[in-house]
Design goal:
- By secondary structure, this protein is mainly β.
- The protein has three domains: 2-62, SH3 type barrels (Roll); 66-124, Nucleic acid-binding proteins (OB fold (Dihydrolipoamide Acetyltransferase, E2P), Beta Barrel); 128-184, Beta Barrel (OB fold (Dihydrolipoamide Acetyltransferase, E2P)), CATH 2.40.50.140.
- The protein has strands at 2-3, 12-15, 18-28, 36-43, 49-55, 59-62, 66-76, 79-84, 90-94, 110-116, 119-124, 128-136, 149-154, 159-163, 171-175, 180-184.
- Strands 1-6-2-3-4-5 form a six-stranded antiparallel beta sheet, with no helix packed on it. The chain has a five-stranded antiparallel beta sheet with strand order 9-8-7-10-11, with no helix packed on it. Strands 14-13-12-15-16 form a five-stranded antiparallel beta sheet, with no helix packed on it.
- 16% of the residues are buried.
- It is found in: Cytoplasm.
- It holds the Pfam family Elong-fact-P_C.
- Residues 129-184 form the Elongation factor P C-terminal domain.
Length: 185
Amino acid sequence: MISVNDFKTGLTVEVDGDIFTVLDFQHVKPGKGAAFVRSKLKNLRNGNTVERTFRAGETIGRAIIENRGVQYLYASGADHVFMDNETYDQFELSAKQLEWELNFLRENMTVNIVSYQGEILGINLPTSVELKVTETEPGVKGNTAQGATKSATLETGHTVQVPLFINEGDVLLIDTREGKYISRA
């Protein structure tokens, strides 16, 4: 058990049978009445974000999340097959569980699997990945004052805005948190 007074960003807790990670919290001491903790929590099972208020000193369960290295092997219909790097066990995750992550996932890529008491909650991607540009329009110099961009489709099918000098076949560094172009690799 952990007191809500000890909240930290990134802490994982169990509330009402669901697993949450603390995104933000604020200790509030009103002039009249008891102190409380206002928090923003992300549900690790379905990805929803909720705001909860707890009484100061209230205790809730601490959830110990396990991270293991796994390798993405291939897509099998609507499912995606991964292999544990230590035990070589294979398991599948549905495309619904990997909605955002599929924009950056390549075959044979190593990622971390997030699990709680044997239940797989999802995967953690590296903060940036290298992906190849498969389709983009040629850059045209013209009426641009600064920072002109164009659309580019990556090998995973994800589309990003890139500078005009990027061509097909270039390998780019992409931020997986926001899905944006960082630089050429």
